[in-house]
Structures are given as structure tokens and as C-alpha cells.
Amino acid sequence: MYRLQSADVIEKIISQRTFSVGTTPTKLDITPNTRVIVIENSGTTDVYFGNNSVSTSTGISIKQGEIAVFTIKHGIEIFFVAGSPTIIKILEAY
User: Distance between CA atoms of 52 and 5, rounded to whole angstroms?
Assistant: First the structure.
């Protein structure tokens, strides 16, 4: 599980929401000016992220109960998929 480090700086929280992940790749709509995304897999199954063709066998997993933190650049597209429909929590910040 990822733990925020003292060097991780979040200046302002832009958005905080849940996100439905299904069995086909689903694009995360990223709020403009987002620099940091925090993802908590609060659902009932592992989720996987990657590009628009991500699958449960090719994606990078976020296990149930884990938290992942990404620093992103403008214009990136992130897709999620799961073996069965589930919910994750998303926090966007800069």
C-alpha cells in the first residue's frame, strides 16, 4: 500500500468522487489543472489501469484496499478495468 511521503505536496484538492469500473476499459475524465491523482480501491475486486486497451491480464493492478498516487501531465488518458464491476475513490489535486 502506498503511503504519502513528506516530499509529496498537494496544494489544493480539486475533486473528490467515486468512479465505477466495469469489465471493459473505462476512461477516467480528469479535471483540468489536475497534477496529482490519488486512487483508493474501495471496491470488492482488484482494478487495473493502463491505456485504452487495458485488460485484467495486461494492466497494472491496484489491489482491493490499496491506494495509488500518480503525478500526471496534462493530456494523459488513464483507463480502468476490473474482473467484475466495482467502485474506486478518486481524489484530484494540484
Answer: 30
Q: Which of these, 92, 85, 43, 84, lies nearest to 66 by C-alpha position? A: 43
What is the Cα 56 distance to its own chain's centre?
15
21-48 per-position pLDDT tens digit: 999 999 999 999 999 999 999 999 999 9
Q: Give 32's contacts (C-beta < 8 A, 6+ positions apart).
A: none
| Cβ-contact 59, 78 below 8 angstroms | no
| Distance from chain centroid for Cα 38 | 6
The angle formed by the CA atoms of residues 88, 91 and 92, to the nearest 5 degrees, is 135
